[in-house]
Amino acid sequence: MGTSLQVVEQLSPGRNVDAYVQSVSTIPILTAEEERELAERLHYQSDLEAARQLVMSHLRFVVHIARSYSGYGLPLGDLIQEGNVGLMKAVKRFDPTMGVRLVSFAVHWIKAEMHEFILRNWRIVKIATTKAQRKLFFNLRSQKKGLGWMNNDEVKAIADDLGVDAKTVRQMEGRLASSDTAFDAPVDTDEDSAWQAPAAYLEDMSADPAAQLEASDWEESSQKALMDAISVLDERSRDILMQRWLSEEKATLHDLAAKYGVSAERIRQLEKNAMNKIKVAMSA
């Protein structure tokens, strides 16, 4: 799969997504016979050129799927990049003896990569933490008929269709409809309006000063352990993590790829390796 990976990286969306979409739309679609021949060459002979052609001919399909997730407010280029990873995984695993077209097989892998990306990035506070919630999260957004709240009949229909109870559907609908609210009042807020901020009237009746001090010490210790773990990384890996996760204006894979003169996929690999090293260091 090395050759196909290089080609996808060369056509990576980057900053000019429109140019990328236009480029992949000019790549011919394979006929069923051509696809089967290429798949057999890959499956039985490990022909990387066949893998390249299979990947290239389906890049436009990834773009089509990525556009269906535009409502989450995430960069289309990043969605396409994740979808391309899923496409390559599908091509690698595709068995021509299954009797189905590659596009039917690949859709699962493409969407799986996009789903994980969306759930990691759509909100800081995750709204879907279990497999059932993730399924409901994506299906509920597509099945809702409008922007308003659903009536009981609509809730029951979706609950029956997805195999969950109505209460779960209502809970997820509330999560999707919620918005982030600042706890503290803005800096330039006058005294007469400051009381409207949650920090002015919310009180945690269960607060324990001793527990708070202990938690503060633990957090300080954890932060020190994290910084110590980061310090053992090489300069490039350290910068990638800082830019991707610890900076106020987080950099994209393509920003860092341009900075270091490598592909976005290579940046993603370096980021993953660095995260694994940090986990090992902090658990030691």
TrEMBL record:
Phylogenetic placement of the source organism: Bacteria, Pseudomonadati, Pseudomonadota, Gammaproteobacteria, Oceanospirillales
Mind listing where the DNA-binding region sits, in residue ranges?
253-272
This protein is called: RNA polymerase sigma factor RpoH
Report motif location: Interaction with polymerase core subunit RpoC. 78-81
Q: Name one GO molecular function term.
A: DNA binding
Q: Which GO terms describe its cellular component?
A: cytoplasm
* UniProt organism field: Marinobacterium lutimaris
Name the major location.
Answer: cytoplasm
Annotated function: Sigma factors are initiation factors that promote the attachment of RNA polymerase to specific initiation sites and are then released. This sigma factor is involved in regulation of expression of heat shock genes.
State its location(s): Cytoplasm
What Gene Ontology terms for biological process does this UniProt record contain?
Answer: DNA-templated transcription initiation; response to heat
